[in-house]
Specification:
By secondary structure, this protein is an all-beta fold. The protein is built from no helices and 10 strands. Bound molecules: FE2/S2 (inorganic) cluster (FES). The site of FE2/S2 (inorganic) cluster has 9 residues, from loops.
Amino acid sequence: MNEWVRLCSRAELPYEGKAKEFILHGKTLCVATIHGQSLALDNVCPHRGGPLAEGTIEAGKVTCPWHQWEFDLATGVSTHSPDARVASYPLRGNGDDVMVEI
Ligand code: FES
């Protein structure tokens, strides 16, 4: 069963158009900010395990730095193959904290 846990403070979120890695409860998350909204995906690329948080952010997608597969930041679905996806995790604010449902 999923639960809401503290991810970080609002000040620790990545800047607009950037991604950042967070390690939490045994998972590594890629958190990116686009259009003022932060979104969270699993950080491990399903192709060969590339670190998505080290990729580039553009047009609502993160591009894996290893072989350039793209993933929609809102859904985790790859534009390379609809069968390839990473888990996405809801975020919400709680005062100065950011919570994630994992
Ligand atoms: S490891 Fe991500 S595209 Fe190959």
